[in-house]
Amino acid sequence: xxAAIQNWRRQSTYGDPIVVVSGLPRSGTSMMMRMLDAxxxxxxxxxxxxxxxDNPKGYFELERIKDLEKEADKSYIRQSRGKVxxxxxxxxxxLPPDNFYQVLFMRRDLDEVLKSQDKMIEHRQADxxxxxxxxxxxxxxxxxxxxxxxxNAPNFAIHEVFYAQCVSSPGQVATxxxxxxxxxxxxAKMTAAVDPSLYRNKSG
Amino acid sequence: MFWGNSAKVKLDRAxxxxxxxxxxxxxxxTTDEFVAHVLEKEMLHFENMxxxxxxxxxxxxxxxxx
Lengths: 204, 66
Known about the structure:
The structure holds two protein chains of two kinds.
Chain A: H1 2-14, E1 18-23, H2 29-39, E2 84-86, E3 101-107, H3 110-124, H4 132-152, E4 156-162, H5 163-168, H6 170-180, H7 187-192, H8 196-200
Parallel strand pairs in A: 1-2, 1-3, 3-4
Chain B: H1 13-26, H2 31-46, H3 49-62
Helix pairs in contact in B: 1-2
């Protein structure tokens, strides 16, 4: 009830919410985007980053978001009101303050995240100067910092989704996510969008 | 100290008692000094720009930031 009142106040101040799927790369953000897409929520994506070995069902990304930290004009984000957009957790701090963001924050075991990221770096043949032990600590601090920022911001609401639970109990996660977003989506279709075989035997 | 550049933080009594014991054993002059030292060390984690640099480098490699 209290959350509903808070959301009503946020919506009357900032307009229709922008649903933001966030988290570290390889924490299940694309899986959640696919669930929301199937459930009937419009996705903001340009299709530039296409499906590959790391994400066989696609990334659901907007290329321009990569520049969010540097860009001065972020007014285009407003056009995502009423839809869902993927923004990695590192860039949440750079979202413009004039919107109401409903954040679905994906959480996954950090060792799994790092392993999966390493595979992706390898596939991309990209340089990687980082060490996983220091990066794991940095990620841990980063997550704490992001959660604190989101919880303290008046125009953010957050719901955490755990990757493992999403794969093992997609129906329950779909129901909870749908409730968080106001019950406007088709939870059955969201549930059906999760392909456990895609995730069960891979660490990515 | 009630005046100057300090502020109070409330702690659960049971936790405070434990903290006070550890501060004493560890040789801190006061419980306040121990708490401040622990918090300063913890804050370094959050203010560690090197951590952000590592994350930024990884995200660039993964293609998530430009």
